[in-house]
Every structure is written in structure tokens, then in C-alpha cells.
């Protein structure tokens, strides 16, 4: 019966305590890699949800703008100049800025991101925006992001209960006229949408006509790439002309390479990989050392170094798979807790699950390849 059981499995299960410690170490390394990659992807995804929701083909921004949280205004005359191109159907200015929102219950202020758009046209493909746009035509009425952090107060709960919800925004009293869903990000914990007129009422220091984003819709059948190239030649150099996807990539690249956050999450993933490699190496090295005499015996009766190497690599593969399962399971629990605590989109993806599995197998194979060097000292002459 035992002859059908692989030697690698018998070696691993002989010391069950050691096996449990090894699996715990691999699971820990997997969890570390999963969490770092999860937070990194949540960082990227949360900060481009607005960009993805834009209902347009081309985006104009100031060439000095770095990201959504550091936008520079530009004259809307640049935007309207795009109408000179025959392929352009319509243009739409968007205002955005950060300001203070005072929690109506505790009175504590907290920064919030406000978007000002023309309520006659829905520019944002977000749940709750289309059906509530008419409400922001009224003075000092805003739409509140139901996915904002709880520190802003029980706004969504009170509104859904039919209560009149008011709050102070930049020392101006506003009324919540509806709810929409965008979600918190690393750049903003909460969001508001209102009309361009109300936006300028709140930000009295902002000059009408200086916008932050220009959205362009093209006529059906127009070639976006060609229009972008023509606009880049036609408009002054102080305007950056981007396709919608380029605008998404623009924001993503900022967080990936323009800040320390993206680097930190990537470094954390690498550290998890290194930690796992060291743990597995220690386990396999100890395994080889403890059974050095047995390996020497196998050599003496004719087994080759290649066969012993395969045994060790089989052990590494078994450790990788067995350690991955609890790591993946516990990560799902941690992802859920992280979503509840931060309201960030921390979800498991198929690509990430496969990537970490491959990294775990590679990690264990590297450890096995290093540990197997000890087998060279398994000399049958020392035994017989």
C-alpha cells in the first residue's frame, strides 16, 4: 500500500508538527502578498472610478495637472474651441475641488470632494445620478455619495428614512437632494455632486469659466484617435488632450509611480515572497539534513541525484499547494473586513488568485532548488 504513496508525501507527513509550521509560514507569506496586491489594486481602481464613469470620448485637462487630487484649472474657451472640429458633437465643462464638510451630528469638519456639472446633461455613469440631476438645479442642493465614510455623519441613513438632511459645506448651508454611489478612494473619503452654479456658490473664490476637466463627445462614427491628434495640433500646448482610456491610465500611473504608496505595496509583495522563500528553505533544508543518511542509502542502491532532486521539488510543490489553500481562505476573510473598515474596493480577482498561486509555487521551487544542494554531501561512503 505504501509503495503507491509518493516518497515526498511520506517525508512531509512524517513530522506533522513541522509540516503544520511550514504550511502556516507559507500561508502567512501568501496572505502578505494577497493583502499588498489587494490594497494596491484597490488604490488603482478606487482612484479611477470617476474617470471610468465619464460619458465622453475625449478629456481635456491642464498640462500641469498631475492627478485628480491636484488638478489645475484652465479656461473653458480652450474647451469650446474644440467645437471647431467637425467630428466634435458637444463639449462639457466639469468643476471639482476639495473643501470642508461639517458633520451635522458631531460638528467635526472633514474634507470632501465636490463635482460641479451642468445638470442638463448627465456626464457621469454612476448609480443615482441620472434620476437626481434635476434636484441639483435648485439652489444649494447637492447629491451625496452613499459610499462615503461614516465620519461624515449618518447622511444616507437619515435621507433614506425620509428626513431632511442639511449640512455645512465651506460655511454654506446645503441640502442633500439625493444619493448616488461612487465610493471612497485614497484621494477622497467622500464625494458630492451638484450643479455648476451651486459649485460656484460654494467656492466663491473660483472664477466662472476656469474649469478642471473638459469632456468632449464625438459624433457617431468619428475616429477618436484621429480627433485626439487633430486637437493636439489645434489647441495650445497648455492643454493635455487625452482619450478616456488615456485619462484613466494617467491617473493610475500617478498613483503607481508618482507617489510612494504604489511602491510601498509592491515592495510589501516582494517582501512576502522573500519571507515565504526563506521559510520553505528552512523547512526543506532541515528535512534534507534529518534524512541525509536515508538519501545516502538511496544513492548507494542506485538512485540518482536527479531522482532525489525530483523528490525535494515534489515536496516543495506539495507545500506550495497545501499552504496556498489556508492562505487564500483567510485572505477572503481579511478582504471583507478591510472593505467594511475602509470602504475601499478590496476584492479578490481571478488574475490575482492565479498570480499568487504561481508565485507560491515558484517561491517553493526556489527554496527546494537551494535546499537540494545539501544532497551533494549525502555520500554513501560515509554510511557504509
Beta fraction: 15-25%
Count the E strands.
11
Question: Between the first and last Cα atoms, what is the distance in angstroms?
Answer: 29 Å
H/E element sequence: HHHEEHEEEHEEEHEEHEHHHHHH
From the helix content, strand content and strand pairing, which structural class follows?
alpha+beta
Work out the radius of gyration. Answer: 29 Å
Helix content: 40-55%
Shape: elongated
How many helices in DSSP terms?
A: 13
Poorly predicted tracts of residues: none
Report the biggest beta sheet as strand number plus sense, adding barrel if it closes: 6 strands, mixed, barrel
Mean pLDDT value = 87
Record the strand order, biggest sheet: 3-4-8-5-7-6
Describe the structure using short key phrases.
single chain, 384 residues, alpha+beta, 6-stranded mixed beta barrel, two-stranded antiparallel sheet, 11 strands, 50% helix, 17% strand
Amino acid at each position: 500500500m505504501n509503495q503507491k504513496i509518493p516518497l515526498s508525501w511520506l517525508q512531509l507527513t512524517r513530522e506533522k508538527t513541522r509540516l503544520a509550521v511550514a504550511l502556516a509560514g507559507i500561508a502567512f507569506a501568501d496572505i502578505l502578498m494577497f493583502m499588498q496586491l489587494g490594497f494596491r489594486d484597490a488604490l488603482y481602481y478606487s482612484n479611477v472610478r470617476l474617470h471610468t464613469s465619464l460619458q465622453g470620448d475625449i478629456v481635456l485637462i491642464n498640462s500641469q495637472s498631475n492627478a485628480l487630487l491636484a488638478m489645475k484649472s484652465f479656461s473653458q474657451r480652450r474647451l469650446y474651441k474644440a467645437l471647431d472640429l467637425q467630428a466634435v458633437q458637444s463639449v462639457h465643462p466639469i468643476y471639482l475641488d476639495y473643501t470642508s464638510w461639517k458633520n451635522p451630528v458631531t460638528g467635526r469638519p472633514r474634507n470632501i470632494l465636490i463635482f460641479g456639472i451642468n445638470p442638463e446633461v448627465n456626464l457621469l455613469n454612476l448609480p443615482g445620478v441620472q434620476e437626481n440631476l434635476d434636484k441639483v438645479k435648485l439652489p444649494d442642493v447637492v447629491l451625496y455619495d452613499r459610499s462615503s465614510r461614516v465620519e461624515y455623519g449618518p447622511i444616507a441613513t437619515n435621507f433614506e428614512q425620509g428626513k431632511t438632511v442639511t449640512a455645512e459645506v465651506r460655511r454654506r448651508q446645503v441640502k442633500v437632494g439625493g444619493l448616488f454611489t461612487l465610493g471612497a478612494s485614497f484621494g477622497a473619503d467622500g464625494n458630492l455632486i451638484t450643479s455648476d452654479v451651486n459649485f460656484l456658490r460654494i467656492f466663491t473664490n473660483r472664477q466662472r469659466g476656469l474649469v478642471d476637466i473638459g469632456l468632449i463627445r464625438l459624433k457617431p462614427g468619428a475616429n477618436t484617435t484621429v480627433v485626439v491628434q487633430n486637437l493636439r495640433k489645434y489647441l495650445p500646448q497648455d492643454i493635455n488632450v487625452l482619450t478616456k482610456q488615456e485619462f484613466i491610465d494617467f491617473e493610475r500611473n500617478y498613483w503607481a509611480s508618482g507617489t510612494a504608496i504604489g511602491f510601498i505595496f509592491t515592495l510589501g509583495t516582494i517582501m512576502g515572497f522573500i519571507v515565504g522563500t526563506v521559510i520553505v528553505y528552512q523547512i526543506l533544508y532541515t528535512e534534507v539534513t534529518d534524512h541525509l543518511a536515508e538519501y545516502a542509502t538511496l544513492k548507494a542502491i542506485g538512485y540518482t541525484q536527479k531522482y532525489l532532486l525530483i523528490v525535494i521539488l515534489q515536496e516543495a510543490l506539495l507545500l506550495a499547494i497545501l499552504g496556498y489553500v489556508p492562505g487564500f481562505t483567510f485572505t477572503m476573510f481579511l478582504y471583507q473586513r478591510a472593505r467594511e473598515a475602509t470602504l475601499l474596493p478590496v476584492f479578490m480577482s481571478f488574475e490575482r488568485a492565479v498570480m499568487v498561486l504561481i508565485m507560491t509555487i515558484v517561491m517553493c521551487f526556489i527554496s527546494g532548488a537551494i535546499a537540494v544542494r545539501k544532497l551533494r554531501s549525502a555520500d554513501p561512503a560515509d554510511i557504509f
